[in-house]
Structure formats: C-alpha cells, structure tokens
C-alpha cells in the first residue's frame, strides 16, 4: 500500500450511480453530501462549470472532516453537465423543461462533461480534471419522451438522461468512457490518485462484488 496508513475515500455526492460505480470497482466510499448551491457558479464554459462545482463540493465536505491518526482520508467531489447546442444543461427545472430538452436532443448528440476534484486532507494536496464523452441520442417518439419524463428519472440527473437506468434505451451510443456519463470516471480517478502518489488498488476493499476476495497489492 502507498504510505503507512489505510485509505478512506469520502464521496461528496448524493448520487447513487457514483457510489455504485465505485462499489463495482471494489471501492466502498463513505458518503457525505456537500450541500453546495450550484447556482453560485456562473460561466459560459461547460468544462469550467463542472470543474469548479466539483472543487466546491469537495472543499465543502473537507471542512467537515478532521484528519485521522489511523487512516488517510481522501475526498472526491464530482459534477456533471451536458453541453448541447452551445448551451449547458444541468438538471431540468421541472418536467416541462425535461420534455423540451428531450425534444431538442432526440436524434442528435451532445457532450457530457464530468468534473472531478480529489483532495488528500493530510497532505494538503489536490488533483482535478474534467472527463468528456460524446453522447448520441436515439430519435425517440413524443410518447417515449412523455413516458420517460413521467418516471421522474430525468429530473434528477444532469442532461435529463441516464445510460445506466431507464434512459439507457434512448442512447444509441457514446464515444468515450461510460463512467463519465454516469458521473464518475474510474480511469480519470486512477490518474488523479497517481498525481497524489497513490494507487487505485490501495482503495480496494477485502471483498469485491461477486464475493471474490480482493487484497491490496503489496
């Protein structure tokens, strides 16, 4: 393991999809929601917006944690936005907004950006970056749009769609890392950890999904 202390990862997000992404990769995070007001950041650049919000979320959670003598605590903040037609789509304001968006997006493509900010509390170091993936939407019917929005799922996610839920059938294909669209890119997390002189294998728990035993590399 890198360093002498076990690693603890705190996820500064209420997103079940982000938590499940980490768990599927053998990482069991603690969850502490940041409570950041996303309207505080105003910019015309999607990458800048999600990067700044990811940083603010990580820093907000950081202020509520204390360094521990028996473990090394890391905080990961994430934020996602869809860049479409030169505009920035976060979560829809309401169902009508989600319907309007889908009627514009269907049969076309946009770029999903996910900002990541990783902070090592004890070392006082930070690594951050944005992952971007092109999403091609299916040309779905008005009835499909209405049915999907009625489920409520689009109202809770950036861009008003998912690929790992009910919205999956309405995405024809993507160009890039699927984790970016879900909201947390594991390859990018690995690179950010490396910038802090850590390895993603250091975060593996004893038992991974499927009950297979996973031991950290020496």
UniProtKB/TrEMBL annotation:
Q: What are the entry keywords?
A: Cytoplasm, Hydrolase, Nucleotide metabolism
Q: Which InterPro entries match?
A: ITPase-like_fam (IPR029001), Maf-like (IPR003697)
Active-site residues annotated for this sequence? 79
The top EC class is: hydrolase
Cofactor(s) needed: a divalent metal cation
Q: Which reaction does it catalyse?
A: a 2'-deoxyribonucleoside 5'-triphosphate + H2O = a 2'-deoxyribonucleoside 5'-phosphate + diphosphate + H(+); a ribonucleoside 5'-triphosphate + H2O = a ribonucleoside 5'-phosphate + diphosphate + H(+)
Family of the protein in this entry: Belongs to the Maf family.
Entry function: Nucleoside triphosphate pyrophosphatase. May have a dual role in cell division arrest and in preventing the incorporation of modified nucleotides into cellular nucleic acids.
Q: Tell me what this protein is called.
A: Nucleoside triphosphate pyrophosphatase
Q: Which organism is it from?
A: Micromonospora thermarum
């Amino acid at each position: 393991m890198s360093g002498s202390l076990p690693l603890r990862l705190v996820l500064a997000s209420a997103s079940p999809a982000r938590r499940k992404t980490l768990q599927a990769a053998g990482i069991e995070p603690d969850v502490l929601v940041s409570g950041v007001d996303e309207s505080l950041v105003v910019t015309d650049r999607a990458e800048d917006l999600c990067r700044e919000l990811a940083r603010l979320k990580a820093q907000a959670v950081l202020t509520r944690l204390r360094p521990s003598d028996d473990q090394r605590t890391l905080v990961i903040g994430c934020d996602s936005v869809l860049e479409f037609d030169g505009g920035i789509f976060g979560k829809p304001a309401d169902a009508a907004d989600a319907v309007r968006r889908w009627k514009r997006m269907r049969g076309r493509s946009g770029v999903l950006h996910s900002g990541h900010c990783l902070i090592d509390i004890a070392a006082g170091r930070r690594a951050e970056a944005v992952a971007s993936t092109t999403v091609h939407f299916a040309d779905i019917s008005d009835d499909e749009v209405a049915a999907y929005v009625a489920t409520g799922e689009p109202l809770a996610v950036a861009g008003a769609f998912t690929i790992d839920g009910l919205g999956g059938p309405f995405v024809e294909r993507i160009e890039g890392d699927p984790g970016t669209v879900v909201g947390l890119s594991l390859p990018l997390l690995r690179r950010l950890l490396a910038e802090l002189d850590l390895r993603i294998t250091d975060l593996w728990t004893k038992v991974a999904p499927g009950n297979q035993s996973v031991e950290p590399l020496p």
